[in-house]
Every structure is written in structure tokens, then in C-alpha cells.
Amino acid sequence: xxxxxxxxxxxxxxxxxxxxxxxxxxxxxxxxxxxxxxxxxxxxxxxxxxxxxxxxxxxxxxxxxxxxxxxxxxxxxxxxxxxxxxxxxxxxxxxxxxxxxxxxxxxxxxxxxxxxxxxxxxxxxxxxxxxxxxxxxxxxxxxxxxxxxxxxxxxxxxxxxxxxxxxxxxxxxxxxxxxxxxxxxxxxxxxxxxxxxxxxxxxxxxxxxxxxxxxxxxxxxxxxxxxxxxxxxxxxxxxxxxxxxxxxxxxxxxxxxxxxxxxxxxxxxxxxxxxxxxxxxxxxxxxxxxxxxxxxxxxxxxxxxxxxxxxxxxxxxxxxxxxxxxxxxxxxxxxxxxxxxxxxxxxxxxxxxxxxxxxxxxxxxxxxxxxxxxxxxxxxxxxxxxxxxxxxxxxxxxx
Length: 399
Prior knowledge:
Layout: H1 5-8, H2 11-19, H3 28-36, H4 43-53, H5 59-69, H6 78-87, H7 96-107, H8 114-125, H9 129-138, H10 140-143, H11 145-159, H12 170-190, H13 197-200, H14 206-216, H15 218-226, H16 233-249, H17 261-274, H18 280-294, H19 301-323, H20 325-330, H21 337-357, H22 363-385, H23 393-398
Helix pairs in contact: 4-6, 4-12, 7-16, 8-14, 8-15, 8-19, 9-18, 11-12, 14-15, 14-16, 18-19, 19-21
């Protein structure tokens, strides 16, 4: 099996050499096994959505929201009862202390952590053309790119806040809500007469959901390291453990939930070999995300134009850093050598500061508090400016 382009170019090749020993590429049988999951969706969530569709308008979602707040009644409808019985059966491997440590390690990055989220995780995901078909099909990523980027950031902060994955807590609820949103999107795509199952496989299938999970976990960790942040091996493992549980709540099959960092790199290699095949829709979505980054300067005159240029240059340079020249050129991302040099320099400064932090007693805890405050302030600003729909009611109705 030839190396996928994503791993021949840029930082992923470097990452595999830095963190993983030996050849982690899958063989033909492993590839075939992975592809079986491209025909698997999420029966429990899909059953809930099918049940919702049979209820009077709005009643199904109200019942789901009520079940999120309180324990499901014994006489609740079968699909709701089965769904919550499954998610509330906490897996044996979940370690609450590791969840807390992983969330704190992510929180320590503060707002710097949002750069890999958009520029690496989301932009990298656009290289997976089959997964983009559902995004293009809803029309929301392309035509409401800014709002969806904001809602993704708010959701990501919800699920990665320390303590947020406790039963009934904000992150726990957000993970289950987005799982049902995915089921609504699946239902909408399955109703389309033009959905090409032979070329695109099942919409929002298990392979694609697992890929999203890796982009938000493994690629995020690698991306923040490229920007100069430092994690111990235990911290990296704890972050992946946190996302393993988030993935489980979101309905990802147990077989596709990496148990450690090497597992995650192995799965990412398999996904890159079979999923990261960009097309014209990849370019359209990348363009929409670049335009969303440019929107920071709207309505500010000459100063706004400068802000827009800087925003696009910085975000695109970070994407180029990890995706590599070939992939970035295919996505038609702006190429600004000066901005790229600034990013590399800033990463060096961050790395030096992070090195000092590790040797100063109390500095890590202080940085966690600063990062948490920055994230809270960011969410408040988002709510004031954009009013993101964290219940996803609009997306459920649209799907």
C-alpha cells in the first residue's frame, strides 16, 4: 500500500517518526476490515431520530432534551430508553482521573488551542472528500461557515472542560446532542435520491466519525506541539483517553476507539490511505473556511482590511505547516512565506516558554487557570456576538 499524500508531506511524516517506532501502516486485511465500517451508521441514534419524525412537531426533540436532564422513565418510548440505557452504561475502561488530567492539559493551551481546531482539524477533514458530501449536502458549512465554525469551537470547549463529561454535565450533554444531530443529517442524506452510495458509502458512517474523532484528538495534540506547546507522554495519553470516551458517547464503535497513542497513529494511517482523497468539494469548503477567517475585518474600513489579511495569512500558514505544500496547494490555500516564518518563530518562543514552565513549581496549574479563563471569556464573546445554538435545535429542524 502506497503512503497517502497527507503523510508524505509536512508534519505528519515527522510526527510518526518522532512518536512511533516501526512501521505502523496497515496490511490489506486491516484496510478491508476498516472499510466494512463505512457501511455502518449508528442504529441507536438513528432509531431515536426515526421515532422523532413520527411525533408531532417539536415533541420528539422535547422528549430527548427532557431525557438529557433527567433519568429516562421506565415507560419511555423504546428508542429513547434503548439509547440512554446504552450511553449511561459507562465503559469499564473509563478512568475519571485521566479524563480530568486530559481536560486540564487541553485547557492549558487556552485560546491557542483553537488554531489547530480550525486550521488543522477542520481543514484537514476537508481532504476526506466522501465525508464532505454530507457537509455540502446540508449547505450549512459552505453558506454559514462562520456560524458553524463558532458552534464547533463552542462544542469543543464544552466537551474538553474539566469535569464536563460527568453524567448530565455540559460536555456529556453536548456530546449526545451532536450524536443525534449526526443522525438527523444521516436521515436527510438517506432521503436524497442523488446520494451515491457506491461512491460515497453510507452518510456520516463509522469511519468518518472515527476520522473526526482523530482530527479533534491526535491531530489537535500534534498541531499544538507544532505551535510550541509541550506535553508529557502521560498528558498525550490522557488527552486521547478523554477523546476515547467522547467518541464512545458519540456512538463510535468500540473497535474504532484507539486505546493509546500508537493505536491512534495506526488508525490515522489507515484513514489517510482510504479516506483522504480531496476533490472539488474539498476546495469549496476550504474556500468557505478561509472566507470565514477573513470575516474578522468586516465593517472596519482600512483597519479591517489589514485584520482580514493577517487573519487569513496566519490561519492558512498554520494549515500549510501541517498539511504540507501539495495538499495546501490543492485546497488553494493562500501562500504567505512571511506569515509562515512568523508562525515558526512564534512556535519557537512558545516552546521556550513551555520548557521553562515545566521546571517552575505551580506554573502548570497557573497556566491551566489562565487557559480556562481565556476559554470562558471566548465563549461569552461568542454568545454575545453570534448567539450560537448549543442545543442544535436549528440543525435538527433543518435536517
